[in-house]
Amino acid sequence: MKKLNNEAELVKEAIRVGDVYAQKRGVGKFEGTDSSHDKIAYIYRLLVHDKLIQPLAKGEDKEPAMKHKLALWIHRQLPEDHPLKK
């Protein structure tokens, strides 16, 4: 698993976009007290359920791997001229 440039910032953006996606789908909204781990796990599972990303292999669904999957997902969604893609 090769780390992306700006992976931490990409994960933050994935959480933001994932929150909007979940709200538009009507399946939930994050509260200010929700931990980043809970947000990451929820968004990852939602995207897997909606078949927008491939699930991780059984036993490999730990937080660092989920963060990496979310970073890859948002990286593909961003336009080519976005600052996080540089």
Describe the protein in words.
This protein is globular. It has one domain (7-78): Uncharacterised protein PF16691 family (Four Helix Bundle (Hemerythrin (Met), subunit A)), CATH 1.20.120.1930. With 86 residues, it is mainly alpha-helical. The two termini are 19 Å apart. The protein has helices at 7-25, 36-49, 63-77. It contains three helices and no strands. Helix 1 (7-25) crosses helix 2 (36-49) and helix 1 packs across helix 3.
What is the count of β-strands? 0
The CATH topology corresponds to Four Helix Bundle (Hemerythrin (Met), subunit A)
Which regions have little confidence, pLDDT < 50, spanning 5+ residues?
none
CATH superfamily: Uncharacterised protein PF16691 family
Helix content: 55-70%
Distance between the termini: 19 Å
Query: Main beta sheet, described?
Result: none
Number of domains: 1
H/E series, N to C? HHH
Mean pLDDT over all positions: 91
- Report Rg: 12 Å
Query: How does CATH name the architecture?
Result: Up-down Bundle
Task: Label the overall shape.
Answer: globular
Highest-level CATH class: Mainly Alpha
Helical stretch tally? 3
Structural class: mainly alpha
Pfam family, one: DUF5062
Organism: Oceanicoccus sagamiensis
InterPro entries: DUF5062, DUF5062_sf
Protein name: DUF5062 domain-containing protein
